[in-house]
Specification:
alpha/beta, Rossmann fold, 5 strands, binds 1,3,4-trihydroxy-5-OXO-cyclohexanecarboxylic acid
Length: 157
């Protein structure tokens, strides 16, 4: 099982950026914790971060037939990017949207996600632990999809 983790703009600044909102953990530390969890579940995991919308779209497209699930923090693009939403819908790979902060209790403009309607679900507000929860959800969904595919193949055989 392969999970792709995609991080949007300014998340490379974790540990420096608005620590009172996002905490002191760096992106590398967040990824190391996810890597450990993935290893415990024998899942392969890949990480990608970009500040550019088009590059994020490209990385999502690369998940087509390559990844079993996506964990994505689209960061500020959550609230603006139709292109990222369309890319997730296009590839048909189950995606979990994740946020470090609880976007529902922040500024009005953060309360709407253009991405959430094409995701399996959203995890928001648990600090860096949000990522581990999102990874658990992604592995669960990917496992279910794999089981469904295996069942279909067995029926056709
Ligand atoms: C964020 C929330 C977004 O509103 C913000 O633009 C971010 C981070 C979060 O993880 O809490 O960059 O996605």
């Amino acid at each position: 099982m392969k999970i792709t983790v995609i991080q949007g703009p300014n998340l490379n600044m974790l540990g420096v950026r608005e620590k009172s909102v996002y905490g002191p953990m760096t992106l590398d530390q967040v990824h190391n914790a996810m890597k450990q969890l993935a290893e415990q579940h024998k899942a392969e995991i890949e990480f990608y971060q970009s500040n550019l919308e088009g590059e994020i779209v490209d990385r999502i497209q690369e998940c087509y037939n390559e990844s079993d699930a996506i964990v994505i923090n689209p960061a500020a693009y959550t609230h603006s990017s139709i292109a990222i939403r369309d890319a997730i819908a296009a590839v048909g790979v189950p995606a979990v949207e994740v946020h470090i902060s609880n976007t529902a209790r922040r500024e009005e403009f953060r309360r709407n996600s253009l991405i959430a309607p094409v995701c399996a679900g959203v995890i928001s507000g648990f600090g860096p632990f949000s990522y581990q929860l999102a990874l658990m959800a992604a592995m669960q969904i990917a496992g279910e999809v794999q089981a469904q595919k295996a069942q279909k193949a067995a029926q056709q055989a």
